[in-house]
Design a protein that fits this description.
Beta Polymerase, domain 2, binds ligand 0O2, 5 strands
């Protein structure tokens, strides 16, 4: 079965709700970016993309967490059936976008994790928000969860490479590789801060 068919099979009628939440989130971010530029500010976002978690990945996650592998559990017990990733230029842009998103009245913040201030032991850095969004249907309103990941270009680069390398666990000396990956993450975090300082110096000079 191709992925599209498999997803429809697993998510059933909820697929259309998930697609609507995904489009809604992407539209909101797009509007926030355009509005800031319209009023003379820098666009804080480098790019933004989203996805509906594949049925295969959702089944794997539910099983890994010891949850029932059902649609109900996929919609209510894990929160990232819908996910968007906002990649920003600088660290302060990430926090600016977090603040702006928190002001969206009809989007309830359920949970947030700041893996930038508190990186994971392997070096993973990102800001995660779990939100709940309404979907207005002809006869009722449903609420669906979504995950918003925010990070800088450097954090995104590290996460993409680490994700790729995670699957290459047959290579010996895993401990050394993990240590090196953590060192790369720390170096990239330090570069992120230097780049931000350079931008601030330029901004200050231009004022
Ligand atoms: P995919 O395929 O990317 O969607 P919980 O612990 O229950 O509160 P959860 O969702 O189990 O929450 O874990 P967490 O730590 O909030 O991470 C959620 C997502 O963040 C992951 O989704 C990854 O996308 C990303 N992520 C977290 N840790 C790492 C990491 O160490 N490396 C990389 N590259 N990404 C990470 P999924 O579902 O695991 O995968």
């Amino acid at each position: 079965m191709d992925t599209g068919e498999e997803n429809k099979d697993f998510y059933q009628d909820a697929q259309v709700l998930l697609e609507s939440v995904l489009q809604e989130l992407l539209l909101r971010v797009n509007l926030l970016r355009r509005y800031q530029v319209l009023y003379g500010q820098r666009d804080p976002v480098e790019h933004c993309k989203g996805r509906i978690k594949s049925a295969e990945s959702m089944r794997e996650k539910l099983a890994r967490k010891g949850l029932p592998v059902t649609l109900e559990s996929a919609l209510n017990d894990v929160y990232d059936a819908v996910g968007i990733r906002i990649v920003c230029q600088f660290v302060d842009d990430v926090y600016r976008m977090v603040d702006i998103l928190k002001r969206q009245e009809d989007m309830v913040l359920v949970k947030e994790k700041d893996f930038i201030k508190n990186p994971k032991p392997n070096g993973y850095r990102s800001y995660h928000m779990i939100v709940k969004l309404p979907v207005h249907l002809p006869d009722c309103t449903r609420e669906l969860y979504a995950e918003i990941q925010l990070r800088t270009i450097a954090m995104d680069c590290w996460a993409a490479l680490e994700h790729e390398l995670k699957y290459k666990q047959t290579i010996p000396n895993q401990e050394l590789l993990q240590k090196e990956l953590k060192r790369c993450s720390d170096e990239m975090a330090s570069t992120d801060l230097t780049m931000q300082t350079i931008r601030q110096v330029i901004d200050h000079h231009e004022e």
